[in-house]
Design brief:
The complex is a heterodimer of chains A (about 70) and B (about 140).
Chain A (H helix, E strand, L loop, with lengths): L1 E2 L1 H8 L3 H8 L3 H8 L7 H10 L4 H4 E2 L5
Antiparallel strand pairs in A: 1-2
Helix pairs in contact in A: 2-3
Chain B lengths: L15 H22 L6 H24 L7 H32 L8 H22 L2
Helix pairs in contact in B: 1-2, 2-4, 3-4
Classes of the chains: A mainly alpha (about 70), B mainly alpha (about 140).
Amino acid sequence: MKNTLKVERAKLNITQQDLADKVGVSRQTINSIESEKYVPSTLLAIKISEVFKTTVNEIFTLENGD
Amino acid sequence: MENKTNNYKGTRIHKHFKKMGIGIILIALITGLSIKLMHIEMMPTHKAFFKVFTLNGFILGLLFVALAKEKVEDEMIAQMRSKAMSQTFIWAVLYVILTPFVDLIFKDPIQNLTGQQVVIAMLFGYLLNYYSQKFSNK
């Protein structure tokens, strides 16, 4: 699954730690999501999309084979 | 509102138990090694007591380290723990099956595995697997 988390973060000018604090996970988790090593749960994906005031589909998109 | 993304407690204990566990492991190791290396003359009952003390101390220490919470216990950590646990189960079964063959090659005759040996192998397997996942994700 691809994501545009890094881009969205850059738009809001917030760090991985800031985002992690807002959604209640560790900075390592945000880093793993950004580098596409970890796919977040629905709950976390919704929380992240709420921070960026957008929809989950705008941030996370399926790739071929997903 | 309760935060559910970092609320994966399970059967976890306070994070301070990790340091306590490492301390117990060190004490058990130092006790075991000093008795073995210093060739202290002891009655067989005392020797058996120290062997049990060392092994149980080691197991308790490893258990504390394995159960201690991380600073942020979130869903990714929960997934890593669960993956490590399931792989450790397979590793333990293979360990029990293969050890007699290793004994047969290197230490004939075959020695029976004790419960303590299996538990130590499982805890080691779990911790190695969990921390290797954790550091590869950093």
